[in-house]
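Morning. Coffee machine broken again, so started the prediction first thing and wrote up yesterday's gels while waiting. Chain of 246 residues, entered below exactly as on the submission form.
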Amino acid sequence: MNEIDFSSIAVPEILPDGFRRLEWAYRRPRWRRMVATVLLMAQTGVSTVRELERLTALDRKTIHIVLDSMLDLLDPLIESHVFHAGGRGHLRVVVLTDYAKNLCRALGVEPVESDLEKIMRLHNGEVQTFHAALVLMAAYQARLRGWKAEVMPFDPQETPWFQPDLKVTDPEGWFYYCEVETRSRVKSHKWARMREVNLIVPTPTTRQWMVQRLKDMGIPGRATDLRTLAQQAKAGDLSRFWLEKW
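Came back before lunch.
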């Protein structure tokens, strides 16, 4: 995902013909912020409200007002879904509609494939929504720490045998292809052919169980869990992404 400075996004004073209903429906500060948010989504491929909060530096209340405004339009700019993310947690994901993509093209920006669209295309994301939510949350936690993250970093035609869920790259340029697992299970046939495993799971308990199983199988690697990363981020600790290595 490309990092874009939200404050540098240029929004025209007058929108192209066919898209001026935004000007008529909302006051200038709001529709300009809406268009800037759409352009940000088009250039970065961001797919979660949490990522939009981070990239726009808007507080949670303000970004939800902006998104709700988009949803309220007759031809909405975004589609919004809520994915189960473990326990009582939920993740709100957003994608641009065709109307919004055409608006971006009219403004000279060709939308990139979003994180969610890529997961849907390459990993049956419409069915495996819990797994999709975990992949998006892992990407968010990596980017929050200044790492780069790419979901589904493979071409199924070129490497049908190699289809990791996520690629993360630390600030020094070291990169790791990761497997995101939804529950405590070790697929012996899957891991046995790997020289090492970079594992992302939902909870500390799942991480501890799976790490022990992988150690027993003699497979080295790294592991992290999303609950601990979220707790550390909330406490202001963004120093680590991997929580253990063996």
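The radius of gyration is 19 Å. Going to sketch it on the whiteboard this afternoon.
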